[in-house]
Model the fold of this input.
Amino acid sequence: MMKLDRPLCVFDLEATGTDVAQDRIVDVCILRFGPDGRETVLSELVDPGVPIPAEASAIHRITDEMVRGKPTIKDLAPRLLDILEGADLSGFNAARYDIPLLAAELKRAGFDWPLEGRRIVDSFTIFARKERRDLTAAYKFYCGKDLSGAHRAEADVRATAEVLWAQVERYPDLPKDVAGLHAFCAQIDPGRVDADGKFVWKGGEAAFGFGGKHKGRLLRDVAREDPGYLDWMIHKGSFSADVTRICREARAGKFPAKK
Done:
């Protein structure tokens, strides 16, 4: 059991998208654990003040109808700040998503949420560091063997093949043919336009899902106002063929259409 010397707030947010600077919260839950063992919970749907994109609703199942008439972040701010008062913070990927998103929302609502002195425990970071996701770990997990000679091409390729055979045998719902496995591997997050997530769906249109300059902006607007940025992406050489194709088509006035 964890030892607490001060309260710990574990929380999660659902939002209109993944841009922590621009998207809006639609659902919040904070579970506060006290050093004395007492638990306090705050769980509320939130009216974001903007339409919830269909691609976001497809993930968290929260619709405009569900949040209509619910409190706004400004309404909830006093309660949020009260339950978070004097507490350390925790969540799954909270350091990169939930914490900056909540901080941005509170700031927009006119409330200050100082983070100085708070300790952050991120379950995702612990998971990533403790449960390796390399070939050696996969070989041990699926095949029950230690990989000797790792990082030599033949040893790695033989282990990779054994892992694939073991995966096909392990999961009954996994396709057993190459065509089916290709389709399974090609599936992408429904919120992404491309597999890398460089572009994401926003209100049915492609928007930038990365970078500080245009993140969150519609591809259509950037193509009109800053076409040189698309040229840079096309010629940089580090973007996937799919991303490069999207940029080339955007320069020609053709934009992705969500099916």
Residues 15 and 25 are 4 Å apart (CA to CA). The chain has a mean pLDDT of 91. Strands lie at 8-15, 25-33, 39-45, 88-91, 120-122, 199-202, 205-208. The domain at 8-127 is CATH 3.30.420.10 (Nucleotidyltransferase; domain 5).
